[in-house]
Amino acid sequence: MRNTVLLRVDLTGDFKPLSEGTLVATFALLASEKNTQDVLVSDGKGAEIDLAAGREFRFERVDLSELQVKSKAGEVVFVVGHTAG
Question: Is the predicted pLDDT of residue 72 greater than 90, yes or no?
Answer without folding.
Answer: yes
